[in-house]
């Protein structure tokens, strides 16, 4: 019985395969008639119709197989029936996917076969097209357009470069051209410690002023007018000791401050800085060995007073002195400065000495502290600026021999002269205390005044406020000078000059322009500044009297300055 059911099942499977191969048409022929087609394609009704099989256990397998075959047959029928069959189609499709059957959407495949896609020309077709006259003309037209466009862009770039303003090369400068030199002529007066240690403790304060060099001393042993007692290599016990000097140099270098040592031989005597002419050769020979000694200690330069005498009396020794200080070696790659000091005040004399002595900087009395003849002052500045590079010009007001700025020009004009020193073309040399308006008190080395926490009343409080204001003004100017190229090494152009007023322009390449204006008179003055290089308006950067010139913008054609007032103005570069 079981065997018979198995054979019948196999026969049914073969018949199902035959019907599948024949397609829907064959299936229609096997049906009883049109009226029987509906129930056959009704899906669930066909699957539920029982097959005539025996009621034993072997009949179950045959029934399941026949039901699966009927289900597959239903899936293969076209989904074109009525609403009932359309609703049953999704469930039938899902059931087919579950049973692993695959639907074939013949209409969609036919649409894809009928759709034609353009995939471009093949190699032979491209070659045929490329050889046609139209294609050749098109290709040459495209090439011409490309090269014309490329040449146009190249020509435009060249035109922009040619028309753009050229940047000037920076001049060759040295460290002493980048900030003020601060001179401490008497170590004992500078700090409460009254020695080199006290000076070393104040290096941070000097760094805040943006000074570039510290001129120390003289500190060597030199009894007045005593050639035999002169000892360049020995530090006076009153000034300190070698260890203190070593720490001072190290501390200054860490702050970016170079140290210059004043080695003027007879700095305490009255017979001249080099004693007499007969002793000049002896002193110069001793100085040469001392220079090597101190340069090995790390100093960055030497200052000598009375250079005109030694250069003319013992020229060969002077040549050696210059070579020792100025020449570079493998051990000393940094440039060392040789600073000369002269009491000459004529611009012509100073210009001649600057050329004949060969010093890097020459401190003179050209500015003549206290002089109100601004016309002569402007002429001297213009002469020296025209004859020499500004990197070799030095400007000073006061010093060891002259005293302090406030005592020479009066406290009211301290800021005015600070502005003058820090904006002229060259290196400013500042005497200690001039940044706060220190006044000489019976001698030219008064005690330096430092800020303290003690409470002050009345006049002392006002004096302290004035010192702080003066120091703040100096610090701001010094910081600006170190940043702005026009003030560092820019061109100098005289704008206005009279008996009591002065104005000049500092400019460099395409940087901002700076106008510096002064009024030394005791009454107000009006400066009418105009020209091709000047706009009508300028901005106030610094003013010695903000109550007289409080505006942030002023009219250069009608610039009003109060008595004893000076101002620093700026305006942007504009290509003409």
Q: Summarize this, please?
A:
It is built from 22 helices and 18 strands. With 576 residues, the chain is an alpha/beta fold. It has 4 domains: 2-114, no CATH class; 123-163; 175-483, Glycosidases (TIM Barrel, Alpha-Beta Barrel); 485-576, Immunoglobulin-like, CATH 2.60.40.1180.
Key structural traits:
single chain; 576 residues; alpha/beta; TIM Barrel; 4 domains; 8-stranded parallel β-sheet; 6-stranded antiparallel β-sheet; 18 strands; globular
> Tell me, what's the shape?
globular
CATH topology of the largest domain: TIM Barrel
Number of strands: 18
What do the pLDDT scores average to? 81
How would you summarize the topology of this molecule?
Elements: H1 2-22, H2 24-30, H3 34-40, H4 44-48, H5 59-76, H6 83-98, H7 106-114, H8 123-130, H9 133-163, E1 181-184, H10 187-190, H11 196-201, H12 203-208, E2 213-216, E3 220-221, E4 231-235, H13 242-254, E5 258-262, H14 277-296, E6 301-305, H15 307-313, H16 315-326, E7 337-341, H17 347-357, E8 361-363, H18 374-387, E9 394-396, H19 405-409, H20 414-423, E10 427-431, H21 458-483, H22 485-489, E11 491-497, E12 501-507, E13 513-519, E14 525-527, E15 537-543, E16 553-555, E17 559-561, E18 566-571
Parallel strand pairs: 1-2, 1-10, 2-5, 5-6, 6-7, 7-8, 9-10
Antiparallel strand pairs: 3-4, 11-12, 12-13, 13-18, 14-17, 15-16, 15-18
Helix pairs in contact: 1-5, 14-16, 15-16, 17-18, 20-21
